[in-house]
Amino acid sequence: MKRTMEFVIDVYLIFLILFFSIKKKFHIIVNIFNYFVLAFLLSSYFSIIGVNLGAFKIEGDMKLEILFRLYELIFEPLICIGYLNLFCSVKSKLKKIVLSVFVFFIFWAAEFLFVQLGVITFINWNYQKTLISLFGILLTTYFCQQWFRSILKKEGIQT
Length: 159
Known about the structure:
mainly alpha, 5 helices
């Protein structure tokens, strides 16, 4: 259990370092806006699915709960923000498709890891439903980002 937590925290730290070391296409204000939108959408999603629908449960250990909440509020939004920055900077359709498949593979692998390590247990839920939901969350965030960028352009801030 302790070794598992250390491994997952190491992965989190590696992704944090990668996120802050890559060049961002969007202005810092747009990235902060994206983070708030994603944090709201993802925490609402996991609360509705986990608590209201009872589709999965987090095992009783408080350390596992903290690990999952770190994933929900830090890891996943930062991956999404990095994805949106890279997606809009890539010109080729093939590269966009490969990038999208890679990001959804990361989400699937993280969830698979949580299930295999016993952090979460699915109850009448599966990976496909989560990936479809995450696609909807990313799409909603993308449209919110475009709306916010248009407001910033009207105000004279170059994004």
